[in-house]
Amino acid sequence: MLGSLILSYLLTLISGQRIAFRDAASNTINLCALILAILRFKECWWIWLINNVIDLGIWIITFIANGEGSFMLLLVAIAYLVINIYGIIKWNMEAKRNRKLEAN
Predict the structure, then answer these.
(1) CA–CA dist 86, 60 (Å, integer)
(2) CA distance 29 to 24
(3) What CA–CA distance (Å, rounded) separates 42 from 26?
């Protein structure tokens, strides 16, 4: 939270930055998820899901404000969300399979 607030303040110093807190929160959450992924915690997928929802909101706002210039990035945000949901499903399937193997 503190990292988001500091980064948000720094982003507000950039002229034209309208969604500094959302952008800062997204970057900070992404960093936390990356650390959890390196440590191989399944919670990283859920944190990335939160991050992807925030990113999708950012790009929807940007697309509405700027139009066609941000359409491709909006599609990328949607793709990341889909990949993230697939990752959660795949991780859970593998965890169930591994538990069955350990039980035998």
Answers:
(1) 22
(2) 9
(3) 19
30-63 pLDDT per residue, tens:
788 888 888 888 788 898 898 899 889 888 988 9
Collect all residues with Cβ–Cβ distance below 8 Å to 32 and sequence separation of at least 6: 47
Furthest C-alpha separation in the chain:
61
Question: Which tokens in the block code for residue 102?
Answer: 């350990």
pLDDT tens, position by position, 86-103: 999 998 999 899 888 888
Straight-line distance from the first to the last Cα atom of the chain, in angstroms, rounded to the nearest whole number: 44
Q: How far apart are CA 89 and CA 80, in angstroms?
A: 14
DSSP letters for 3-14: HHHHHHHHHHTS
